[in-house]
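CORE FACILITY INTAKE
Project code: CF-77B
Contact: R.S. (postdoc)
Sample description: multi-component assembly, two entities in total
Requested service: structural model of the whole complex
Turnaround: standard
Below are the sequence entries exactly as provided by the requester. Do not edit them.
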Amino acid sequence: MLMLFRNCRWGGSSTSDVASECEETVDQGLRRAQARSVDQRKPRRSLQLAARAAAIVLVLASTAQAADTSAPAVSKHDLQAKIDYCETCHGLSGRGFRGYYPIPRLAGQPPVYLQNQLQAFTEHRRKNIIMFNVAHVLSPEMETALTSYFAGLNPPPLGGAPKDLVSAGKQIYEQGISASDIPPCASCHGADAKGNDAFPRLAGQLNDYIFNKLTNFEKERGQKPEEPDTSAIMQPIAHALTEPQIKAVAAYVSSLE
Amino acid sequence: MDLRVRRSKTAPPNEERGRRLRSVVGLVLALQVGILAFAFAVTGRTGDAATVVASRHGVDGKLEYCLECHGASGQGYHGFYPIPRLAGQQTKYIENQLYAFIERRRTNSIMFNVAHVLSPAMVAGLAEHFRSLSPGPIGDGPRGLVKAGEQIFQNGIPDANVAACSACHGPDGTGNDQIPRLAGQLYPYLVKTLANWAIERGQKPANPDTSAIMKPVAHSLNKPQIEAVAAYISYLK
């Protein structure tokens, strides 16, 4: 249907002209499809028998397979469609994208962290209307498939941060700021900032995204006090960091591969 | 009767005539070269394009020409085809589209003719000017579809893998950098653009461009959804 719709030629100054042109094309398309199916009835009888036999074998094989697995598998087509959808906003290979808002890199993110965030969006513990809509329709199997897919990607960082802040950021990242009781980021996020398990990867993350998240931490995360989550660990750190410090550390990690 | 051709008594002899002819030709040639040299000196387009700025007069003249089709204040116009609003459009987006028309990555014979004569300085000057225009929206979408359109625009259609338009175009539809402003765009233009995305944009697969990002979105939207979201957008200020 969509193919036929795409063949509509649009012209004229009103949508009624457009609609009639489309209907013509739909009819033509249907007739063409019917003509094709008639032609395809012509092949030799032996070929038809072989095809039928193969189909039976395939059906038996697939049902046998389904009996072994407990969870319904996500079809390749559905997964690819969902990946394309995610990448519309999150950028090619999940490298991040500067849309109206800076949209974060997902590539190389530990699957556990991504799953936690999707869950947090769905349960409104993390506030984001767009991501709520995205997340709450995902099945557990789709979540697993998606998060392991993005975890395996490794495009180069998107970049865009001011280079002169990088060395100050590296200092904060590796040594923390003892005067403000801020531990080194490296102690949880790793010396290479690639994260681990529930601790997110920061390497190659968009600097403006990091800035937004750290400055808005209290307003976005842990929004259900009766259901505290892993975001609580970052709350005091985000609170203690000053804006120049956030900008510096964001510039540093955004440059890391 | 004497029919011999008689040389005029005042005509100079052949040699003299030849010399005069050569000197006249030489003078004409010299004059032509001089005119050319002067012309090149005045236009001076040997420097790089970035340093050459289109004069205010030049941009104004070209602007009038653009506005003939795109509306007196760039608000768009219902011509034989719906002609899009340019007012308030992101400069980077207009520049990208003009180059896409020129390189035929975006197919439109009228806009190819318009675009391919523009110098880079003119492209930049025009884009800057359109950004500054701010007429209200024409507002031509069917009112009954606006509510459904708002849903799609702000929330997307997760089951159909359609991202929320607001994520990239902004909750007010004003866009950012390369991402176009949608607010106040003409309803039939939006409908046509989304429906025909695959046959109009990214027409040089060997030279992919930013239009690729919208391809899956345009593909996943069905006709009623396109009409709804277009109606909503057409009223955004």
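Facility notes:
- The mean pLDDT of chain A is 83.
- Chain A touches chain B at residues 2, 5-6, 8, 10-15, 18, 22, 81-82, 84-85, 88-89, 97-101, 103, 129-130, 133-134, 136-137 (CB under 8 Å).
Invoice: internal transfer
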